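Translate sequence into structure tokens.
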Amino acid sequence: MLSVLLDTLFDGISIGSVLLLAALGLAIVFGLMGVINMAHGELMMIGAYTMYLVQNSFGGLGGVWFESYIFLALPTAFLVAALGGLMLERWVIRYLYGRPLETLLATWGVSLILQQFVRSVNWAMVIGLVLWGALILTGRLLVWPRWGNLPWMSRVWVIAAGALAWGVGALAGERFGLALEEPWFGAEGVDVNAPDWLQGGIPLGDFQLPASRLFIISLTSICLLGLYLFLQKSPWGLRIRAVTQNRSMSACLGIPTGTVDALTFALGSGLAGVAGCAVSLLGSVDPNLGQEYIVNTFMVVVVGGVGNLVGSVVAAMTIGILQDLFSSGILPLLLGDKNPLTGFFNFFATDSMAKVIVFALIIIFLQVRPAGMFPQKGRSVDA
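Result follows.
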């Protein structure tokens, strides 16, 4: 019984580590910037698919190359997701600061677009998107400055470039047979094969600590430490905290608030990409991966206290352990058959029902402490 309990607690800690890793990026975007990013889960999905592509690139090499692909996949996923987040901030969210409802709806729309993109992407679509991006970049650098005060011409250029890129992509697809090509990923899940050194485990008494989950816990610890050092010790971390405390005064002191916003969003998005890599080690990767974690991730940030990293750690571990305790069915074993609560916990001994009771407990907790475990204090609250 003790070994089963320890195994359950370890699984709960590993689940909490995944939630924490996913919540770190959201904590600085939602907590420090006040932006409700419903596409955060899709940035995790992008990181997971980046891991899958890097794995496939190293799959034919074998040997030590395949065993070490994960060390290239992690920074690659961070950069790809950070670039995606930077584009989202520049093109969508920048125009919606201070309007949380519009931000929520816009990022929700972006999340749907990204899900469908992953289901449908093939070479014909990629050709069209690359051409469209090249035309927009050409217009921004060479054409738009000459138009001066004619912003509507820029919109016409974007629409015309999109139409031309779509036409060229369709023609290329017909000419080279790319239009008939199967999507790269499709709606079905794809599997990421972990290196051999992550497929074993460390025996501890009567149970084994899976190496993949130990790796996720270690990765989460490294990311948490790195984020803390960046925010507390680096010049840009100081600027981020200054803008969080008082945006107007920071701008008066010469801090480029627009650049700080973009950097913060890119950093949070990159951490979401790393979280996607961690999630890919636990199961298959599909276009709905982000939706499975986005609600729990928001709960971690809210329960822990908006913008508080320590609170996020405590909340993630608490939610992860509670969810695994309820879903594993160990509580009825501990209580025994004669306990009246045994039937109640047997009813909730599934993953879906465990989430229900955890959410119910969170709602009750927020009725008592609506600002979370570690609420913000000081001038940032008054602002």
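Note: The chain has a mean pLDDT of 82.
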